[in-house]
Amino acid sequence: MWLYLVALLALYLLRRWHRERQTVGNLPDKHVFITGCDSGFGHLLAKQLDGRGLRVLAACLTEQGAERLREATSGRLQTVILDVTRSDSIAAATAWVKGQVGDRGLWGLVNNAGISVPTAPNEWLSKADFVKMLDVNLVGLIEVTLSLLPLVRRARGRVVNVSSVMGRLSFFGGGYCPSKYGVEAFSDSLRREMLPFGVKVCMIEPGYFRTAITDPSILTENFKGLWEQLPQETKAAYGEQYLETFIKATYDMQKSCSPNLSLVTQAMEHALTAQHPRTRYSCGWDAKLLYLPLSYLPTTFTDLVLTWSYPKPAQKA
Predict the structure, then answer these.
(1) 3-state SS class at 281
(2) What is the 3-state secondary structure (H, E, C) of 28-84?
C-alpha cells in the first residue's frame, strides 16, 4: 500500500516538474509592465526580464529611480513615472502602455508597488493611517489592474500580484496585513473571472526579505513618530519599555531577513514565462516552513506562537 502511495507521489512530482519547465515562446515580442521599480523586487525583476530579452515597461515613483534603472539595463527597457494612489497618473501610464504595446496587447502585468508604513499596534493608528496603506497596497493595485486588464486580455497574458505571507497570517497591526489579505481576495476572484479568456493570475507570497519594506530605520522612525502623537493615557497603558522592545525587535527581525531577493524575482519570472505557472508562489524558507504552516493550524496555537515574543504592555491584565 505504502509503495503505491510513494509511487503515485513520485509520478505527481515528476509530472509537475516537467510541466513547470515548459516555457512560452517569442519572449522578445512580449511586453511586461511592472510597478514599483525604484528599488527592491521591482528593480531587480526589471533588470532580470530585460536580460531575458522581454520588452520591459518599468513604472517608477521617482525620476531618480527610473534613471538608475535605465543606466543598468538595455535600450529595450522603457520607464514611466507612476503614482498608484492617483487616478490621473494611472490613466496617463495606461495610455503610455497602449502606445507601447499596440495591437499585441500586454503579456504581463506585475503589481509590485507597496509600502510598509505607517505600521504599529492598531490602537496607535488613525483611520488616515490605514487609508494611506490601503491606497497603495490594495486600491492602487486594483485600479492599475482594471485599467490595464483589457490589454492583458487581448494578449491572453498574465497578472502577477505581489501579496505576502502576511496575506495569509496577520502578524502585526496596521494596514499592511489587511491590504495583503485584500490582494489575496481580489486575485482569487480575478483568476476565476479570467479563466475563460485564457488569462492567468498568480500571487507571490514572500516571507521576510531585506528591502525598503523591512528597513528598520524607516520602521523605527515610523514607530517614534506615532508614539509622540499618542494621548498620554495610551502611552501610560503601553509604557516606554513597550516602544523600546518593539524597536529592538524590528532590528532583530532585519537580521533574519533574507538578502537573496532573486528567490522572489525568480518566482515572478516563472509566473510570467512558464506555460503552466503556479497560482501561488511561497518565497523564502520562513514562508514555507513557518508562516504558511502556521496559517493552517488551530487559531489558539497560532496565537500562542505569534505572541510569544510580543512586547508586554505596562498595564497588562
Answers:
(1) strand
(2) HHCEEEECCCCCHHHHHHHHHHHHHCCEEEEEECCHHHHHHHHHCCCCCCEEEECCC
Is the pLDDT at 274 greater than 90? The verdict is: yes
Best CA proximity match to 187, nearest among 281, 285, 48? 281
| pLDDT for res 68 | 96
How close are the terminal C-alpha atoms of the chain, in Å? 54
Q: Which residues are marked as active site?
A: 176
Average pLDDT over residues 179-196: 98
Taking the CB of residue 86, how many other CB atoms lie within 10 A of it? 14
Residue 310: band (very low, low, confident or very high) from pLDDT cuts 50, 70, 90: confident
Q: How far apart are CA 32 and CA 27, in angstroms?
A: 10
- Asked if 288 and 282 count as a contact pair (C-beta separation under 8 A), the reply is yes
3-state secondary structure of 23: strand
Alpha-carbon gap, residue 63 to 188, rounded angstroms: 34
For the residues 181-195, what does the mean pLDDT come to? Answer: 98
Residue that is written with C-alpha cell 538578502 in the block:
259
What 3-state class would DSSP assign to 3? Answer: helix
Q: How far apart are CA 121 and CA 209, in angstroms?
A: 22
- H or E element that contains 155: helix 140-155
Instruction: Determine the Cα–Cα distance for residues 287 and 122; give it in Å rounded to an integer.
Output: 24
Helices marked H in 195-239 — which ranges? 216-228, 232-238
Q: What is the rounded distance in angstroms from the CA atom of residue 306 to the CA atom of residue 294?
A: 9
The closest of 62, 21, 13 to 39, measured between CA atoms, is 62
SS3 of the chain: helix, strand, coil, percent, to 5 = 60, 10, 25
Helix (H) or strand (E) holding 246: helix 240-256
